[in-house]
Amino acid sequence: MIVAVVQTDPAFGAVKQNIAQAVALIGGEQADLFVLPELFATGYNFTDSAEAASLTEYPDGPTFGQMYALAKQKSCYIAYGFAEKSDKRYNSSALVGPEGLVGLYRKIHLYNREKLFFAPGDLGFPVFELPFGKVGMMICFDWIFPESARTLALGGADLIIHPSNLVMPHCPDAMVTRCLENRVYAATANRIGIEERGGNRFAFIGLSEIVGPEGKILIRCGTESTVGVAEIDLSRAKTKQINEYNDLLADRRSEWYTGA
């Protein structure tokens, strides 16, 4: 299959403009799966709860409508981050395909001021069956907790979809370890640009990437708006055997793991 990470430069609150930018980038590429950044349509740096509430939408809202139409047009799947309106507000990602909404994930590990505007996710780490294999979703700061990727691997995910708004420099290299220790693929779609609002400044690092199950970086973007594309073979993520005697999941000694 072909997977693409779409690295955008959203302007805060300019929802129509940001979606149009993403649609244009996707429109110029062919892939089975496109991954967009976290909160790609709204921007990230909210100043207060009222502003955050004004930019939320239901999972079947306007952003879904445009992503669904694009997925049908291109016969592909699209994963994207959005601010979800529900009983609470969530920093969420949706996976859509030609058949509609495939699945939803709500960010479990909230970063920095996100805790002021969003509730922690309550859907766990779901894994979804697509025509080309099993995929799981996590969002941005989930990367720093190894339990996130490990839970998805234990759930059968061959590919981790990872919409992000990364500001710390460590994640691109850390995802190499996440893929290596779980023998999975990962597609991290980050954004670029600076948002300085209400006395808070966030500078986003770009460097979106696709990493293979042996820890090889298959594509890593720079710091511009772009699309990174790689052809991958998800069957390589099926086996966790690294030599004659060691299987990375079967060899786990969970009876000795403490601190849960």
Summarize the structure.
Helix content is 22%, strand content 30%. By secondary structure, it is an alpha/beta fold. α5 packs parallel to α6 (171-182).
General description of the model:
- It is a single chain.
- With 260 residues, the protein is of the alpha/beta class.
- It has a single domain, classed as Carbon-nitrogen hydrolase (Nitrilase/N-carbamoyl-D-aminoacid amidohydrolase).
- It has six helices and 14 strands.
- It has helices at 15-27, 49-54, 62-74, 114-117, 146-154, 171-182; strands at 2-7, 33-35, 77-85, 89-97, 100-106, 127-130, 133-137, 159-163, 185-189, 192-197, 200-205, 209-211, 217-220, 226-231.
- A six-stranded mixed beta sheet has the order 5-4-3-2-1-14.
- The radius of gyration is 17 Å and the shape is globular.
- It starts with a strand and ends in a 29-residue tail after the last strand.
- The mean pLDDT is 97.
Tally of individual domains = 1
> Termini distance?
36 Å
Could you tell me the mean pLDDT?
97
Segments where pLDDT lies below 50 for 5+ residues? Answer: none
CATH architecture: 4-Layer Sandwich
Biggest sheet layout = 6 strands, mixed
Q: What is the overall shape?
A: globular
Number of DSSP helical runs: 6
- Strand content is 25-35%
What's the CATH first level?
Answer: Alpha Beta
Radius of gyration: 17 Å
The CATH topology, please?
Nitrilase/N-carbamoyl-D-aminoacid amidohydrolase
Order of helices and strands: EHEHHEEEHEEHEHEEEEEE
Physical arrangement of strands within the biggest beta sheet? 5-4-3-2-1-14
Helix and strand content put the structural class at: alpha/beta
CATH superfamily: Carbon-nitrogen hydrolase
* Total beta strand runs: 14
Binned, the helix content reads 10-25%
